């Protein structure tokens, strides 16, 4: 009699566990495991991705139909436009880039966009040129972590 009670108890416990996953839950679990897998990413690919992201954001901002707030929310980055008017509040890296762009201002054809390390972030900068005149610079700061996760 006690064996029957023990077996019946084990059967009820085993049936009550509900350890089976549905196909959707199983797929979601596998996707999450794949996303958390350790990936080896080169510095070059990180900088290339930041450069591509920066270029696409500047292109979007150049069109009149796109708002800055919408772009910032979508890209999880900070965007700053610096003009020639007054002394803008910039960190050391941004100041050195601003000074370099102003130094080469005499020949705007040499000005190009670039990506540099700025602490834990990546700083994309692109000149704003119109009629061979430097009007300002776009500074876009990306989280290094976000860039790596997007690769």
Automatic annotation (TrEMBL):
PROSITE patterns: PROKAR_LIPOPROTEIN. It comes from the Bacteria. This is Lipoprotein. The lineage of its organism: Bacteria, Pseudomonadati, Bacteroidota, Cytophagia, Cytophagales.
